[in-house]
Amino acid sequence: MSALALxxxxxxxxxxxxxxxxxxxxDREALLQVFESGKWGGFPSPNTWxxxxxxxxxxxxxxxxxICAANGTxxxxxxxxxxxxxxxxxxxxxxxxxxxxxxxxxxxxxxxxFADVDPETYCLDPKSVETALTPRTRAxxxxxxxxxxxxxxxxxxxxxxxxxxxxxxxxHAHGAxxxxxxxxxxxxxxxxxxxxxxxxxxxxxxxxxxSDKILEERCQSIVNCGRKEPGYDSFAGQxxxxxxxxxxxxxxxxxxxxxxxxxxTILREKNIAYLEKRLPEIPxxxxxxxxxxxxRQGAYQYILRYDKTAWDGVHxxxxxxxxxxxxIPCDGYFYIxxxxxxxxxxxxxxxxxxxxxxxxxxxxxxxxxxxxxxRAAYEESIWLHHALFMxxxxxxxxxxxxxxxxxxxxxxxxxxxxxSRDRG
Length: 424
What we know:
Radius of gyration: 22 Å
Structural class: alpha/beta
Strand content: 5-15%
Mean pLDDT: 95
Order of helices and strands: HHEHEHEHEHEEEEEHHEEEHHHEH
Strand order of the largest sheet: 1-9-8-5-4-2-3
Shape: globular
Low-confidence stretches: none
Number of strands: 13
Helix content: 25-40%
């Protein structure tokens, strides 16, 4: 093969992959309807398009109720408040996730407790959850990460045994199903993000799913400044709230996106299956284990697992760098354990419930190590965005060819990363 693009050779791929987001005349027409109506905001809540979106999205995921919100960060906070999580309660989360998963408990003055991930799926490990339990544990937030889902069967058994609330973080899992049932409908509540890069997007936006009527009513009230309107006024008392409403412009775009979701999910699954058929051609590159209960795969990011021993010790970061130069967009540090990152900043002077468990200084970091998540983040994971799988098999062939080319030239890469990441 020709020289590596990293070292001046011609790249395997020069044309762009499928652009994201996908849109057509249906989006234009929906936006025009909202524009001409003059009713662009989220009040009354839920407004016309928000109600339509919630019904469509819930049906697609086998839940009774959908609650629209401004983004996928506040949906986690709303779900925690609706479930009655209070100051000092502990919420178990994986360390290998986006910062919102752990920051949401902090925002309600609860305490996130990090558990490790399953080495086969990089999703929350039920065994690690069990070891993290204390008398103060009140909830679990499993994250369906990248292209896999957490073991919801085991987690629900654990939750029932210890009377815990389960809030699924489904920011990566639109359209995914576990044993034929939609992501977000397996726990007590499910939270989805509609941010720009997600599997459904309106730039921003979020969704909460539940099949519990009282939880649905509480969520609707929290989204709408604490109001108790007809349809969500039968629960007792009030809950801390704010204006978390989605706009009608966003809701209209997402309602149209619902009509594409199944087709796009099937296309990605087809191309991913083709990639997995070809991966054995490349030493040291394997897919994460797909549990037989994952009956439909939603792959926001498709994660490859890298074994440097098959590449004569070449660091994962060097492979990622070389792959990018060959025209294949990818990432290694897409996520790192939250306690190593700059964005996760649990200030105890703002959130005093943290101090009792972690102390007032920086000692809390030492109490959070999760070795499997660290290995995934710093040594093994290669993340490919879902848009790479929205074209044809020829796109997948380019990914495989680029990996093969780099493998053949692995002796020219060196074994160390060009730069190191601050690990706290």
